[in-house]
Hints:
This protein is an all-beta fold and 68 residues long. It has no helices and five strands.
Amino acid sequence: MEVRETGTSTFGHVPHRLLGQRVVDTRSLREGELRAVVAEGKGGLTAYIRGRDHREFEAPLACVRAAT
Length: 68
């Protein structure tokens, strides 16, 4: 099966200025690297963050800020 690049993501990924950078989930205060931002139903955006333990967790993008 051949896969073609169409310019839109099959998984709903959206670009974000903090991708690949250290971020903090302000609800849980967990830190990690922002790996992806995905558009969920009803316009919500979910951030996928790889924590220090190398496990990925998700948080609403509205609760994510750059780590200092």
